[in-house]
Specification:
It contains 17 helices and 20 strands. The protein is an alpha/beta fold. The chain has a domain of about 290 residues: FAD/NAD(P)-binding domain, CATH 3.50.50.60. A hairpin with a 4-residue loop joins strand 14 and strand 15.
């Protein structure tokens, strides 16, 4: 039996919770479905050891309700997953959202009917929804790349992907543990479990630039201080370049060599992502500036490692890629982990993992590492992956999966031509695909979607779809902006190059969060120019 509703929201994370809340306030009959056993989105699935914010806690919040903001108090600057999950439960309970979600239900297909102007959506639990609007709040990093190596199923021990870490945890004490991958997630795992495992072998393919995290605890005075900034943050976060509280303030050309060094030292000491997101914007465009800042970070890392062999394995070398063109991880004594007797770094760029065998991991040269547990911090099919794993069929039998297999295109990262009434958050070609404090961008996108649906209803329209011409124009603008950066010239998940066969395109809009917001607002102010609103 079909459940006939106005809107279906896929996902119960930061975007999905707020989207459902807004549409419910608009008077729509709205329901949410979530594959996980409870709400939380990325903070439900990513419960690996050491999982935590690298956005400051007081900016990773909803800003539409001052009391909602101030009635929750964080314990530290960068809290860990259990506290973040508790915060999301607080939000859901405060706004009474649970009653409108079905948990443990995964959307498997969605089919557009041109005659009715509606979607038929089916889940793996047998539920069928007949809905006017379909909103994918599926997350930008929620399609884990699980089958990466030959022979995975043969392993006699325990093997897990960090994005699917078991709720009950794993017994790691005294075990021989292998960690594959040293991106942001791998670093958090490695620095956390090193003291408790018997031995840890870290398989390193791509060295990472890292920044040290400073994570002070918050008492009553600290909490009072950040809560007093509510109006400031509400006004500032949406218009900065990355949705963080800080923004680029310095011009490289205007400073002397000594002044540049002083700025870098001061910002590096902040213990946040500020060196990446608010030092010198020229690092993203000018190879000479990139080289100097990259060397600054390399020197900081090498001074801590000291061992030339470890420096060669763990620190990016000149010519690899520039600081900031990959995702930059924050860490706490991560590099010092490799100085422990029970930790070994194994380079696999030139001697890759050939297969996983019953005993452990075998490299191309035949070297076998015997292990009890393998933790795969090998990433995600970012931006497009989660929605592409659903069988979404739009106009003329076109599938979203098929379209994105040819070319990853969207309009504003919010809609896709050929898929009417399908709205998206955290999708390609918007800042929320990668380069943003996620709550900042996800709030903006869900609010825009809500406003768009309100405008449709006000004019008696039932179908909204971007025109092909407007989508072409947005993709061209996105590419012109992205291709001016060094990000576009670097292989990483930012360009989809971590997934075999994925069309190459910078996934995130690189023109800045404030600029993106202004463009979206202009479109709305012009009556949603570029979007065809039809039907009744």
């Amino acid at each position: 039996m079909k459940k006939v509703i106005d809107a279906l929201v896929i996902g119960a994370g930061v975007a999905g919770l707020y989207q459902l809340y807004q549409l419910r306030r608009e008077g729509l009959d709205v329901h949410g479905v979530e594959a996980g056993g409870d709400l939380g989105g990325t903070w439900y699935w990513n419960r690996y050891p050491g999982a935590k914010f690298d956005s400051e806690s007081y900016i990773y919040q909803y800003l539409f309700d001052e009391a909602l903001y101030k009635d929750w108090t964080w314990s530290e600057r960068f809290p860990s997953q259990p506290e973040i999950e508790r915060w999301l439960h607080y939000v859901a309970d405060r706004l009474d959202l649970r009653k409108d979600f079905t948990f443990g239900s995964k959307v498997v297909s969605a089919d557009w009917d041109d005659d009715t102007g509606r979607w038929t959506v089916q889940t793996d639990t047998g539920d069928v929804y007949d809905t006017r609007f379909l909103i994918g709040c599926t997350g930008m990093l929620s399609a884990p790349l699980t089958e990466r190596f030959k022979g995975q199923q043969s392993f006699r021990g325990t093997i897990v992907h960090t994005g699917l870490y078991p709720r009950e945890g794993l017994e790691l004490e005294g075990k021989r543990v292998g960690v594959i991958g040293i991106g942001a997630t791998g670093i958090q795992v490695i620095q956390t479990i090193a003291p408790i495992v018997g031995s840890m072998t870290v398989f390193v393919r791509t060295p990472q630039y890292v920044l040290p995290m400073k994570n002070p605890k918050y008492g009553p005075e600290e909490a009072k201080a950040y809560k007093a900034r509510f109006d400031e943050l509400k006004g500032n976060l949406p218009i900065t370049f990355t949705g963080f509280e800080y923004d680029f303030e310095h011009s490289w050309a205007d400073l002397t060599t000594d002044q540049r060094r002083a700025v870098l030292e001061e910002i590096h000491a902040d213990g946040s992502l500020k060196l990446w997101l608010a030092s010198f914007a020229e690092m993203f465009f000018d190879e000479a500036v990139s080289a100097e800042i990259s060397q600054f970070v390399r020197d900081k890392m090498a001074a801590r490692l000291k061992d030339p062999a470890l420096i060669d394995i763990l620190v990016p070398q000149p010519g690899d890629y520039g600081f900031g063109t990959h995702r930059v991880p924050l860490e706490t004594n991560y590099l010092e982990v490799y100085l422990r007797d029970n930790v070994t770094a194994v380079p696999v760029r030139d001697n890759p993992i050939a297969e996983i065998v019953p005993e452990g991991i075998r490299l191309a040269d035949g070297t076998l590492y015997e292990l009890d547990v393998i933790i795969m911090a090998v990433g995600f099919d970012a931006g497009s992956g989660a929605l592409a794993r659903i069988d979404i069929t739009g106009r003329d039998g076109k599938t979203l999966r098929g379209e994105w297999a040819k070319d990853i295109r969207t309009t504003l990262g919010i809609q896709k031509h050929g898929f009417p009434n399908l709205f998206m958050t955290g999708a390609p070609l918007a800042p929320s695909a990668a380069l943003c404090n996620m709550t900042t961008c996800l709030q903006q996108q869900t609010e825009w979607i809500t406003d768009c649906i309100r405008a449709m209803r006000a004019r008696g329209a039932t179908v909204c779809e971007p025109t092909a011409e407007f989508e072409d124009a947005w993709v061209a603008h996105h590419d012109e902006t992205a291709n001016a950066t060094l990000i576009a010239k670097t292989d990483s998940w930012y360009t989809g190059s971590n997934v075999a066969g994925k069309p190459r395109r910078v996934l995130s809009y690189t023109g800045g969060v404030g600029t993106y917001r202004a463009k979206c607002q202009q479109i709305a102010d012009e009556g949603y120019a570029g979007f065809a609103m039809t039907g009744a």
